[in-house]
Specification:
The protein is mainly α and about 150 residues long. It has helices at about 1-15, 25-45, 50-60, 65-90, 95, 100-120, 125-149. The longest helix is centred in the middle third of the chain and has 25 residues, at about 65-90.
């Protein structure tokens, strides 16, 4: 996550740009990156957007807003597979014990997604990319603290 944050900042703050792979290299690179992100997302129990968006920007040369939309599309099957896996081993029992919290968070997430969709054209990449970098850095710190404690 730290490397992705650094790479995003470098490509954002300099004229270096993204890798923008040629079409013949995009499919195998996408499969390998998708596999790695899927494994990490399933292990961490997340959708993987924090890894997908920088990957789409850095490897495939898409703008940050397109990458966010593509991330949602790619995350859907990942979440469905993870949901099926976690539901079989009883990991979702915690949802029943925290139903009120789950419903409130789901409602907030839906409202946030709707508002975010409406605001898509309002914020420029000059705001969105640094915000994503901060999210990646905070996530990396939280992940490191969680693993060490």
């Amino acid at each position: 996550m730290l490397l992705m944050a650094a790479a995003l900042m470098v490509t954002h703050a300099t004229t270096l740009g993204t890798l923008a792979l040629p079409p013949w290299a995009q499919v195998p690179t996408g499969v390998v990156a998708g596999f790695g992100i899927g494994v990490v997302a399933a292990i961490m129990g997340v959708a993987g957007g924090e890894l997908l968006i920088p990957t789409i920007v850095l490897l495939f040369g898409q703008d940050i807003k397109t990458a966010g939309s593509l991330s949602l599309l790619v995350s859907l099957p990942t979440m469905l597979v993870a949901f099926a896996r976690y539901s079989r081993d009883g990991s979702f029992a915690v949802l029943g014990a925290n139903l009120r919290f789950t419903v409130i968070m789901a409602a907030g997430s839906i409202a946030g997604a709707l508002l975010g969709g409406l605001l898509l054209g309002v914020f420029s990449d000059l705001v969105v990319i640094p915000a994503l970098v901060v999210i990646l850095l905070v996530s990396a710190v939280k992940l490191a603290r969680h693993d060490c404690g």
